[in-house]
Amino acid sequence: MADVHSKEVRSYNMSRIKGKDTKPEMLVRKFLHANGFRYKLHDKTLPGKPDIVLPKYKTVIFIHGCFWHGHKNCKYNKIPIRNYKYWFPKISGNAQRDKKNLKVLRKMNWKVLLVWECNLYSKKREQHLDNLIGLLKLNLP
């Protein structure tokens, strides 16, 4: 099936997709702040520039988009058929890079938590966010 947009319009649309301060990220940040957690954002000194860094808990949180990070068995992770030769290596590469960064962070003794976009849009969003708080409280200093 052909794309419904011209190449220029598609390029413009893709350029508008943000990498920081996304809706899922803002949702998690507001929830953490409302529950008394203070954090740093996008620490460039750590591998993968984690979305949220809680130095007090030696914990980092990545909020991953299911499409961009290749969430397995997720309805939001559908690689486009059009230009498959571009998208498959791109998304696979993102997943490999994420795996490598998580491994390095764990070797540095950081606790790593992943929050997937689909969990924030599900009916069980509050449960997922409460679980996140529970995991953080396990690491109280």
What does this structure look like?
- By secondary structure, the protein is an alpha+beta fold.
- It has a single domain (18-137), classed as 3-Layer(aba) Sandwich (Endonuclease, Chain A).
- Helix content is 47%, strand content 12%.
- It contains six helices and four strands; from the N terminus they run ααβββααβαα.
- The chain has helices at residues 7-15, 23-34, 66-69, 84-107, 117-120, 125-137, and strands spanning 40-41, 52-54, 59-64, 111-116.
- The chain has a four-stranded mixed β-sheet with strand order 1-2-3-4, with helices on both faces.
- The protein is globular.
- The mean pLDDT is 88.
Keyword list:
globular, four-stranded mixed β-sheet, alpha+beta, 47% helix, Endonuclease, Chain A, 6 helices, 141 residues, 12% strand
Record field, number of beta strands: 4
Proportion of residues in β-strands: 5-15%
Total number of distinct structural domains: 1
CATH class: Alpha Beta
The CATH architecture assignment turns out to be 3-Layer(aba) Sandwich
Q: Order of strands side by side in the largest beta sheet?
A: 1-2-3-4
Q: How far is the N terminus from the C terminus? A: 55 Å
Indicate the mean pLDDT. 88
- Annotation field: number of helices: 6
Q: Detail the poorly predicted runs.
A: none
User: How would the global form be characterised?
Assistant: globular
Give the full name of the CATH homologous superfamily: VSR Endonuclease
Helix content: 40-55%
Oligomeric nature of the chains: single chain
- What fold name stands as the CATH topology? Endonuclease, Chain A
Q: How is the main sheet built?
A: 4 strands, mixed
Element order: H for helix, E for strand:
HHEEEHHEHH
What would you call the structural class?
Answer: alpha+beta
Radius of gyration: 17 Å
